[in-house]
Design brief:
With 87 residues, this protein is mostly helical. The chain has one domain. 31% of the residues lie in helices and 0% in strands.
Length: 87
């Protein structure tokens, strides 16, 4: 039933457009790309843990409420790829 419901639901290109905006932002970025925030980085070694990789990461399924956590690099904070054509 769920598959049929989604198959028949009205479609939108909103996510497709946002994804294209992200790709354009990365493609047109001048200089080195912004780094992945430390709290989102995997820390498979002790050195990486000591450098702060993964520190403060909130694993969504462990919380009953939505998690307030930043996922974009600092240079891209506040950019809304659903509304903005380019960053």
């Amino acid at each position: 039933q769920c598959v049929v419901y989604f198959a028949r639901a009205p479609k939108s290109i909103e996510v497709f457009s946002a994804y294209n905006n992200v790709k354009a932002c990365v493609r047109n970025h001048q200089g080195p790309l912004p780094p992945v925030p430390l709290h989102l980085r995997n820390a498979p070694t002790r050195l990486m843990k000591d450098l702060g990789y993964g520190k403060g990461y909130k694993y969504n399924p462990m919380y009953s409420e939505p998690v307030d956590q930043e996922y974009l690099p600092e240079e891209l904070r506040g950019v809304d790829f659903f509304k903005q054509r380019r960053c």
